[in-house]
Specification:
Layout (H helix, E strand, L loop, with lengths): L4 E2 L5 E7 L3 E9 L12 E6 L2 E7 L6 E9 L3 E7 L8 E2 L1 E6 L14 E9 L17 E3 L5 E5 L20 E5 L6 E3 L8 E9 L13 E5 L2 E2 L12 E9 L5 E5 L8 E2 L1 E7 L9 H13 L21 E3 L7 E5 L6 E2 L12 E3 L4 E4 L13 E3 L4 E2 L1 E2 L2 H4 L5 E3 L6 E2 L44 H11 L7 E5 L2
Parallel strand pairs: 10-11, 23-25, 24-26, 25-27, 26-28, 27-30, 29-31
Antiparallel strand pairs: 1-8, 2-7, 3-6, 3-9, 4-5, 4-7, 6-10, 9-32, 10-21, 12-13, 13-20, 14-19, 15-18, 15-21, 16-17, 16-19, 22-23
């Protein structure tokens, strides 16, 4: 990989990808290659749909990649990179998203994700992936270690009728032992703490055995039998699923049964760790209000991903509650260079603080700003608002209201001309001094042409409105 994209601003940067609802395989790849000439490969966090995926640890000169399988309940998914240390900027070389068949990996509750730890093609001489694997899973060749031998299958074709659809290419080879008494053992490279794991093991006989031969074995975990005898079929495949809470020293073995004449074998294996329960995401009404703000003000369109989650990586200009489904409780858009009229974000009914001071907002103060049930502070200072303050705001004695620095605003003790709904003054009438007041100039709200609205925001709207998009087998490479 010769290109990458680096993110030097904001604590969280995201991709939005339109997908079909259902299971996805997502792969994020990273090749540092000393692009910045600092000889310092960074580390950072990888996030999916507001959930922590993994800590990315990059290498100076080696490609590293991470894979996850999870179920998407909406029409888009977000993959984000989050900076965790000063001057260690996240980057990405490739991002691949592929829809899976609904029957694949459906043994896991959709509330959990599967993080790919290993995927082996035993006895293979090269990596197996697309086009041999329709879903482009990466099957790494593995020899099995000392005392293990690789064998090639004599089968010409295979009947693959198991949910996870292993490619025929990984069934064409296997590993076994030279002695009937020797077992095949696998010890996962886990951390010290225990982890809930799933393992898919695939078995296919490599030889069309005669009636005097038999290959039969069991799965053992820490020297305890955990399965019935397994007899691999010739020209077909048997899949075995293991769900276990494993530690760093947990061992998995294939041990011949007493009546077997041949040692155990295995063709391929997948190992997954299970995520914590996936979050639902920020309250949908709050997301809708934020979409309105981002659509109106292009300067806000650089913030993507779940607004509140995970909690260390909330958007810079909001604050959120600690609820399981968090609400946005504060907007801090002071000095953001906003201009034009405010869009209606009244759906954000948990707001306690709204700070919009030191911008160029114009037109009348919207009535909806007085309808927030929990609002305690509203700062509209140093803008270009005009007309009267809505009674719903001025009559709220518990609200801390700041409106200074708005020359066209009618405040207590100052005469006020009626204001039309578009923010312009009505026809002038004589003032108390007999002079005619000049009309205020018509100030229209900023309208962003649809061609200028980023695809990320469009995708964000799709999440909110649950519109279906065409199936996604997408690959995004940084350019």
């Amino acid at each position: 990989m010769s290109t990458l994209r680096v993110f030097t601003s904001r604590k969280k940067n995201c991709y939005f990808i339109s997908v079909d609802k259902g299971p996805l395989l997502v792969r994020a790849s990273f090749y540092y290659g000393n692009y910045d000439r600092k000889l310092s490969p960074p580390s950072f966090d990888l996030l999916i749909d507001g959930n922590h995926w993994t800590k990315v640890i990059t290498s100076l000169d080696q490609l590293v990649y991470y894979e996850v399988v999870y179920v998407v309940e909406s029409d888009a998914t977000s993959i984000c990179l989050a900076q965790t240390q000063p001057n260690q900027f996240p980057f990405i070389s490739a991002l691949e998203v592929r829809s899976l068949d609904p029957k694949m990996y459906n043994y896991v509750d959709p509330k959990y994700a599967l993080f790919v730890r290993s995927r082996f093609a035993y006895g293979a001489s090269a990596t197996v992936r697309y086009p041999d694997d329709f879903y482009d899973r990466i099957w790494v060749p593995e020899s099995g270690g000392t005392g293990v031998i690789s064998v090639a299958s004599e089968a010409i074709s295979y009947e693959v009728d198991v949910p996870e659809e292993p490619p025929e290419a990984v069934l064409q080879n296997a590993i076994t032992t030279s002695s009937l008494s020797q077992s095949l053992t696998y010890i996962p490279d886990f951390a010290d703490k225990k982890a809930a794991i799933y393992m898919n093991l695939y078995f296919s006989e490599v030889t069309d055995l005669d009636t005097t031969q038999k290959r039969s074995f069991r799965i053992y975990i820490d020297n305890n039998p955990k399965s019935e005898p397994i007899i691999p079929p010739y020209g077909k495949v048997t899949e075995m699923l293991i769900n276990y809470t494993a530690a760093s020293n947990t061992s998995f073995s294939l041990v011949s049964t007493l009546d077997s004449t041949l040692p155990p074998l295995i063709n391929a294996m997948e190992v997954f760790s299970v995520s914590d329960p996936l979050v639902v995401g920020t309250n949908s009404k709050d997301v809708g209000g934020l979409v309105e703000l981002q659509t109106q003000f292009s300067v806000l369109q650089g913030w993507y991903g779940d607004p509140c989650l995970p909690s260390p990586y909330t958007w810079d200009w909001i604050s959120c509650s600690n609820d399981v489904i968090p609400h946005v409780t504060a907007l801090d858009l002071s000095s953001f260079g906003l201009s034009g009229q405010l869009p209606d974000f009244s759906s954000m009914d948990s707001l306690v603080t709204i700070d919009l001071h030191n911008n160029s907002l114009s037109g009348p103060i919207p009535d909806f700003l007085g309808a927030f049930p929990y609002l305690e502070e509203l700062n509209l200072a140093d803008n270009s608002f005009s007309g009267p303050i809505p009674p719903s705001i001025s009559s709220n004695k518990t609200l801390k209201l700041v409106v200074s620095g708005n020359p066209g605003l009618c405040v207590s003790g100052k005469s006020c001309k009626p204001t039309s709904t578009d923010g312009t003054k009505s026809s002038p009438t004589p003032s108390s001094g007999g002079e005619t007041s000049n009309k205020l100039p018509i100030i229209l709200g900023t309208t962003i042409p649809s061609s200028m609205i980023s695809s990320a925001i469009v995708a964000f709207i799709y999440i909110l409105r649950h519109r279906r998009k065409k199936a996604a087998i997408a690959a995004i490479a940084a350019g």
